[in-house]
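Q: What would this chain look like folded?
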Amino acid sequence: MLKQPKKLAPEPHFSAYLALLENALLYIRLITSRPEKITPEQIREIHALADAIHNIPEFLLEHGYYFTEEIIREKIVSFDESFRDSGAQLGAMLKESLANARGRNDATA
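A: My prediction, written as structure tokens:
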């Protein structure tokens, strides 16, 4: 990260992807709150979730360089398809986060 000059992602994407990270981390915290109850499938899900979101910080800080929105969304779609019954549906989280961020931007304009 930070291999290129900083170029922040524009709003509402900056706020929406930060909210997505927050929600994904809260979901991981929920699953791991009772370590004795974690199943092998949940471990696989956490690993896939981390894989789907770990490039978002670089996408936000070096916007348009390597990790494009298309690449990030492909990872999100792949996670959602693999874990359809998961409580963490990243695409839905992102859609809601974008709507919320757009609403905040419209309210301040």
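The chain has a mean pLDDT of 91.
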